[in-house]
Amino acid sequence: MTADAGQTRLGEAGAGRPAPKIKPPLLSPALRRRLSAIGWGLISLSLFAGLWEALWFFGMLNPLLLPPPHLFLSDIPGTLKFFDRSNRIGSVASGVGVWPLLFTMGSTTLRVLVGLTLGFTCGVAVGAAIHYVKLLRNLLLPTILLLAPISPVAWLPVAIFVFGIGDVPAIFLVFITVFFAIVLSTGAQIESVPKNYIHVARIMGASQRQTFWKVILPAILPSLFMTLRLNLFAAWMVVLIAETVGVGTGLGQITSMARSTFNAKLVFFTMAIIGLLGFLSDFALRQVQNKMLWWIAPNQGAAR
Amino acid sequence: MSRPAVSIQSVSKRWTPEGRAPVLALDNLSFDVAPGEFIVLLGPSGCGKSTLLYMIAGLEEVSGGTIACDGEPVTEPSAERGLIFQEASLFPWLTIADNVAFGLAVQHVQPVKRREIAVETLKRVGLGDMLDKKPDELSGGMRQRAACARALAMRPKVLMMDEPFAALDVQTRARMQDFLLQIWRDSGASILLVTHSIDEAISLADRVVVFTSRPGRVKTIVPIDLPRPRESRDPRYHAYRDLFTELLADEVDRAFAEQEAV
């Protein structure tokens, strides 16, 4: 019973042997994975910043045009002044603090958020209506297919003509960015809901409405969220462009001002903020996704 | 004899593929299913036996003839006629208990009552400790049992199954057959099960309806006069197996010849 301890002969099936004891690891696997992701993130960032700094150090970069991180992050109070909306041309800068910065970040984020929410809900509603009502499909689909490939940026003049200067054109541009994608995706996804799901609903006596809310919507939601996430970065790009032109506040407006005043430090500082916000909003959307779509394992498709 | 649970009278089904001549899938089928009877529909693949189930369920319309359940002609789907597919088709966004309670929720049964029925039904199928699991945490056999529970929660008079065990491995399949017989006994429902496995037909059925290849007709109906549990070592079991093998061989040959002619 020593050499062949792992074998079972006829007549002695299922001889219970205790499982070998496995030592529990110091950190849970999930925590380890997270830590390693953060670690690699830091390494990647430092490599990028290090290269930049090195180029500056050896005099290969003009700090006026491409100031390395330690320069554009050094004078934060001075940089923050530019975010204060009470400053006017000619007035002495005042109101130094983080609040103006947070306000600027907040107003841009809010525009993205409102635009995404409206675009998503309207997109699903119109997509479903087009799928179910043949008349609507015939009337709307050709126009939608024609409008969908137009870059949201091309809508900017239209948005300003119609909505004037203010929050609305920026929100409208974000809306356009996700709306068409969601409309088209909704139709395609409803088409691909497994037939047996619908059969089960019909056998159980579900009405059309119940079938939509209880079966079709949850079945298509994961792919719609995927579409939303793919368009999130585009939404961030578009909102900045809208702010440059049509709105008096926001990160886009600051970038535009920095460009026209040739303030490279402010350009890069704002870029860093924009990058951070984009990353955070993707992270937040992923959390929402994990909460709302709890039945999908976190590492399944939806993960990065 | 009491009124049949399902009565199929000269039913036929014709498909019209787009831009081509109509195809006759089922031709003039007639047979009755007694209340509480276990019927197996056996035939070569593509003979339309699944289509017949979909028509009894009310998901497909008949092209000719009538189907009546309990004397009422079938016009639309009803939870009294449960249908179970080859894949369990549980909703991945609901827990097992909520999946089982789905039909009750659709019919506006109170949440507490719903849960009670779901728990009780899941206990009957041996999944009493899987209530709050996600469907993809269950094995194939367990998922199929949960799908049975979903149908049983509606207290169906007829339970239809479209090759329910075809996707399961051999060991699981054998146990699922025992499980099904037990469910059948304590629910009192009539069962119509589609399969192309001869052994499955012999181990389960009261009567086996043998189909011809396309267009599907009733070739013959064979009552299985063996006491349950049925032993595959029993010589009479072997006799049945030989009989069905012979009946089906003709049909498979014919289907092959037809395909080669095309």
TrEMBL record, chain B:
SMART domains for this protein: AAA
Record field: transmembrane: none
Positions in coiled-coil regions: none
Position of the signal peptide: none
Pfam families (alphabetical): ABC_tran
InterPro entries assigned to the protein according to its UniProt record, in alphabetical order: AAA+_ATPase, ABC_transporter-like_ATP-bd, ABC_transporter_ATP-bind, P-loop_NTPase
Gene Ontology MF terms in the entry: ATP binding
PROSITE patterns named among the record's database cross-references: ABC_TRANSPORTER_2
Residue ranges annotated for the ABC transporter domain, each copy included: 6-238
Gene3D superfamilies named among the record's database cross-references: P-loop containing nucleotide triphosphate hydrolases
UniProt KW keywords: ATP-binding, Nucleotide-binding, Transport
Family per record: Belongs to the ABC transporter superfamily.
Protein name per its UniProtKB record: NitT/TauT family transport system ATP-binding protein
